[in-house]
């Protein structure tokens, strides 16, 4: 939830849309009159509505103590694998998810394949498109500033941006 003057808004997608509309001056989004708008719209909504929700559901199921062999757990893990494969195929063809420019679609996906991996660890072995993309993300000045702020006082000793292995889970 954020408070911006008289506006209070919650829901991550709504917050992102609000901030981009109020302060973004067109940054992080793609105009509807350009050829890659449909790619942007797909990957932006896919990140929020499909990839993140699947990953969150898996976190809840694991935290609830569901047996490793339970079919629901296996289906969720396969959906994560399918998502990573689809994302990797896209990133083998393009620098960023929406094409050749960094957008809000990348912001959402970065959160899932970095920060959310601390709650439900999964490896990135074999996903060379994703690994290259994460390398590109890690060089962005805004990303460096975010990591610096987020990791202040952190004693975990690692930030799972570029590691192939599944990171140590947060307690």
Characteristic terms for this protein:
single chain; mainly alpha; two-stranded antiparallel ribbon; 2 strands
In short:
With 171 residues, this protein is mainly α. It has helices at residues 12-23, 37-63, 71-93, 104-113, 128-138, 141-150, and strands at 2-4, 7-9.
- How would you state the average pLDDT, rounded? 90
Number of strands: 2
Helices, by number, come to: 6
The portion of residues forming beta strands comes to under 5%
The percent of residues in helical segments reads 40-55%
Radius of gyration: 17 Å
Structural class: mainly alpha
The 3D shape can be described as globular
Mind summarizing the main beta sheet? 2 strands, antiparallel
Strand order, sheet with most strands: 1-2
Please give the alpha-carbon distance between the first and last residues: 24 Å
Listing every helix as H and every strand as E from the N terminus to the C terminus, the arrangement reads EEHHHHHH
Any overview of this molecule?
The longest helix is centred in the N-terminal third of the chain and has 27 residues, at 37-63. This protein is mainly α and 171 residues long. The chain is built from 6 helices and 2 strands; from the N terminus they run E-E-H-H-H-H-H-H. A hairpin with a 2-residue loop joins strand 1 and strand 2. The chain has a two-stranded antiparallel ribbon. Helix 3 packs across helix 5 (128-138). It has helices at residues 12-23, 37-63, 71-93, 104-113, 128-138, 141-150, and strands at 2-4, 7-9. It is globular, with a radius of gyration of 17 Å.
């Amino acid at each position: 939830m954020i408070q911006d003057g008289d506006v209070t808004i919650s829901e991550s997608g709504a917050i992102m849309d609000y901030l981009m509309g109020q302060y973004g001056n067109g940054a992080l989004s793609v105009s509807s009159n350009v050829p890659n708008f449909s790619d942007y719209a797909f990957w932006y909504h896919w990140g929020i509505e499909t990839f993140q929700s699947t990953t969150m559901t898996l976190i809840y199921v694991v935290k609830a103590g569901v047996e490793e062999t339970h079919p629901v757990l296996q289906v969720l893990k396969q959906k994560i694998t399918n998502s990573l494969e689809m994302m990797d195929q896209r990133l083998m063809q393009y620098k960023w998810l929406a094409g050749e420019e960094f957008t809000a679609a990348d912001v959402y996906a970065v959160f899932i394949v970095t920060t959310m991996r601390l709650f439900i660890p999964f490896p990135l072995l074999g996903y060379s498109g994703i690994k290259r993309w994460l390398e590109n993300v890690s060089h962005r000045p805004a990303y460096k500033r975010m990591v610096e702020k987020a990791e202040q006082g952190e004693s975990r000793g690692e930030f799972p941006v570029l590691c192939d292995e599944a990171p140590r889970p947060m307690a």
